[in-house]
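Sanity check. The docking grid for 1,3-dihydroxyacetonephosphate depends on where the pocket ends up, so I'm generating a full predicted complex first rather than guessing from homology. Inputs follow.
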Amino acid sequence: MRQPIVAGNWKMNLGRAEQAVAFVRKIRHPLNEVQGVERVLCPPFTALPAVADALAGTRIGLGAQTMHWEEKGAHTGEIAPSMLEGLVQYVILGHSERRATGSSEESDEAINRKLRAALAHGLTPILCVGERLEQRQAGETELFVAGQVAVALAGLEAEQVARCVIAYEPIWAIGTGEAATPVEANRVIGLVIRGAVAEVFDETTAQQVRVQYGGSVNPENIADFMAMPEIDGALVGGASLKESFVDLVRRAAEARGG
Ligand code: 13P
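Predicted complex below; grid placement will be based on this.
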């Protein structure tokens, strides 16, 4: 069955190596003890090497928050897949906070290129999708999210899709304290996201790919999301910057009988 995965997206926080390592030292032992849930920390680029060292010898994974698709070249400020290979195991792609810049480097097509590059370098992509409030209110959630999934995964092999993680992050739920209801998140993930994967690939792949929920997840509500059969974990922002992230992950594991 699908192994649940909880990832902490630190966003633009704790970016100085010493800050990041001080925090990781506080959580790494208890976090490492949790069984049955894959755990991942995604610090800013500037802290990745130091956090990689601090996590050595643990089973806690490390992820980057974005990546370019090109191997090298004139892309000021960008990070190439080869720069991450061997340093991290995961990479968040297409986060809505990056898509919102409107940059051509964050278009659905660009995210598709990034996904292929990540997979080619042995990284596990965490592909973010999710609708804006206006789209939800206009009844466009299903079409929009299914479209994001289909374009991002276009041209991949089914076996590669099965290795991806998808994060359903409705934009209106991010950083607002207003999480989606577990029932609604479960519906979108099962019907829309797995539905789109089944349509483009096949039902087996749709059942293999892990899909997280993200948006105002905290230690109090995580168990309700984990109780849902289609939800395989969470992508956590603000609550991953606190030591209580360990409780959140523990509760995720307990909710799955871990
Ligand atoms: P919050 O958990 O702070 O709402 O952020 C969610 C998110 O964007 C994770 O990628």
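Relevant for the grid: The CA atoms of residues 34 and 241 lie 18 Å apart.
Also worth noting: Residues 5-239 form a domain with the TIM Barrel fold (CATH 3.20.20.70).
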